[in-house]
Design brief:
The structure is a single chain. This protein has helices at residues 10-15, 135-141, 145-160, 170-180, 187-218, 225-240, 248-255, 259-270, 274-292, 297-303, 308-319, 323-335, and strands at residues 4-7, 22-27, 30-35, 40-49, 53-62, 66-72, 78-85, 87-92, 97-102, 105-109, 114-120, 125-133, 166-167. By secondary structure, it is an alpha+beta fold. It folds into three domains: 4-218, Sandwich (Jelly Rolls), CATH 2.60.120; 221-271; 283-340, Arc Repressor Mutant, subunit A (Orthogonal Bundle). It is 47% helix and 25% strand. The strands form two sheets. An eight-stranded antiparallel beta sheet has the order 2-3-4-5-12-7-10-13. It has a five-stranded mixed beta sheet with strand order 1-6-11-8-9. A hairpin with a 4-residue loop joins strand 3 and strand 4 (40-49). Helix 4 packs antiparallel against helix 5, helix 6 packs across helix 8 and helix 6 runs parallel beside helix 9. The N and C termini lie far apart (50 Å). It contains twelve helices and 13 strands.
Length: 340
């Protein structure tokens, strides 16, 4: 399997599928790429329309890591990729930074030009959903969409300097779930369905960006686009090191962002303090472990960076019951027969 591809236009990625060990089957506007067994398992499904809308989703398990480098002078107007399982790594040459996009997160690219690379790791289940939307597609939807496009362009400068993982809210997750559960088999009905989904996604993204801008205006601290990018990196570092998190001072030093701006900016951007966010993600991981594994309470506490007594206290304060009680309740729910 060739582990380094050069992509100069959106179609290149699919045109080179054979080079990364895929075979393809085509039916009208629906394309399926199935990975050859010697390279792993999985497939990519793509729906591509002349109107300028391209939708794809995939589940992959690769035996060998592969990277594709992107250098496009002309690209889709709006690109969003949501990770349903595992993770992918993105290097953005515009900011010269790398980002890991994890399960439940997405990233958006609204750059006029695109330079960077994406890496799919080996020996891990990777799932994603991606929408590529052209300006022509938006223009074809309604006469008034030129206002829509103008608004996106006004957000482009703000957002360009801070491509980063964004934790998907409930609405984005629901939209993405609808995408892979599409039951339309007729080409026309399927196209209309994806058109509606694409507009819904853009609307949700714009709401997200407007929220950030409003938070900046309400905040007592002025945040630049670079500051916002660093704050997302701070959140990522806390997530990746939740069992042994850096102190505020160390985090500030690592990111070259003063502690005052780190604390106030984090609160403005994520409506939570750094330690409040850390507590929430620790307890969420604990909840998943309690529900889906047989790890002891002490082991769960250790995995998220708490001692046993502190973990029980914090968990009960958050959920109203002890970890042991939560585990018993979750297993009772799983074993209970469905109501008719």
């Amino acid at each position: 399997m060739n582990n380094k591809l050069q992509i100069s236009c959106p179609d290149d990625y699919y045109a080179q599928m054979k080079e990364i060990g895929f075979i393809s089957q085509t039916s009208n506007d629906l394309y399926k790429f199935e990975i050859l067994k010697e390279h792993g398992i999985g497939e990519i499904t793509r729906c591509s329309y002349r109107s300028g809308l391209d939708v794809s989703w995939a589940t992959l398990y690769l035996k060998k890591e592969f990277t594709y480098a992107v250098q496009m002078e002309k690209k889709f107007f709006f690109e969003i990729t949501y990770i349903t399982s595992g993770y992918i790594e993105i290097f953005d040459s515009y900011t010269n930074k790398s980002y890991q996009i994890n399960e439940g997160e997405y990233y958006v690219n609204v750059a006029e030009k695109c330079r960077g690379q994406a890496t799919y790791p080996k020996n891990i289940k990777i799932g994603y959903i991606s929408f590529n939307i052209s300006e022509a597609f938006l223009c074809s939807q309604e006469e008034k969409t030129h206002l829509f496009i103008s608004e996106i362009n006004s957000l482009r400068t703000f957002y360009r300097a801070c491509i980063h993982p964004v934790e998907a809210n409930t609405d984005i997750k629901a939209i993405m779930k609808k995408t892979v559960n599409c039951y339309y088999t007729a080409g026309f009905a399927r196209r209309l369905f994806f058109q509606a989904i694409a507009l819904e996604i853009i609307s949700e993204w714009m709401t997200h960006v407007h929220f950030i801008q409003s938070a900046q205006k309400l905040s007592t601290i002025n945040l630049s686009s670079d500051d916002i990018g660093l704050l997302y990196q701070a959140r990522q570092e806390l997530f990746e090191n939740m069992s042994q998190p850096p102190s505020i001072e160390m985090l500030s030093k690592n990111l070259c962002l003063n502690t005052h701006k780190l604390k106030l900016g984090f609160k403005a951007l994520f409506a939570n303090t750094p330690y409040g966010y850390l507590r929430d993600i620790r307890l969420e991981k604990a909840r998943v472990l309690l529900k889906n594994t047989d790890c002891s309470i002490g082991n769960v506490a250790s995995q998220i960076g708490y001692n046993n007594s502190s973990f029980v206290t914090v968990f009960k304060k958050k959920h109203g019951i002890t970890p042991t009680q939560y585990r018993k309740q979750s297993k009772t729910v799983l074993l209970s027969p469905p109501k008719l």
